[in-house]
Amino acid sequence: MKSITIDLNSLFDDQAKVDRLPEYMNKCIEIAGEGNDIFLTGAAPVWLYLKIAHALHGKARKLTYRSPVTGDVEILNHNPL
Question: d(Cα 59, Cα 44) in Å, to the nearest integer?
Answer without folding.
Answer: 21
